Amino acid sequence: MRGRRRTLAATLADILARVPAAQAVALPAAFAEACGPQLAREASCRGLTREGRLLVVVRTQAWATQVAELAPMLCARVNARLGRAVAHGLDVHLAAER
Asked: How far is the C-alpha of 76 from the C-alpha of 83, rounded, in Å?
């Protein structure tokens, strides 16, 4: 990829996608890369439900709405990054306020 800058999330997702035992780490990295830097600051993937849905936590209701609207694209990007169909949808939750 000469001349093209890659994010740390993209590099990490590529490496971890090749290691089956690293799915717990590969999934959030792939999600962060699928989101892009701005959205990744507001939303994070916390895991995968038994139904194959990504558990996503966001900071505000506005971001929850945005992420829900982007769900098909985000799932497609995560699946492409991991090289297999892992994400079949999103469960979006608001982060608990401190």
From this structure: 10
- On whether the CB atoms of residues 56 and 91 are closer than 8 A, the answer is yes
Separation of alpha carbons 60 and 15, rounded Å: 31
pTM (2 d.p.): 0.77
The topology (CATH level 3) of 8-94 is: GMP Synthetase; Chain A, domain 3 (3.30.300)
- Chain centroid to Cα 93, Å, comes to 14
Instruction: Locate the domains of the chain by residue range.
Output: 8-94
| Lookup result for tokens 């959030």 | 28
Per-residue pLDDT band for 9 (boundaries 50, 70, 90) equals: low
Q: Backbone phi, then psi, for 19, in 5-degree steps?
A: -115, 105
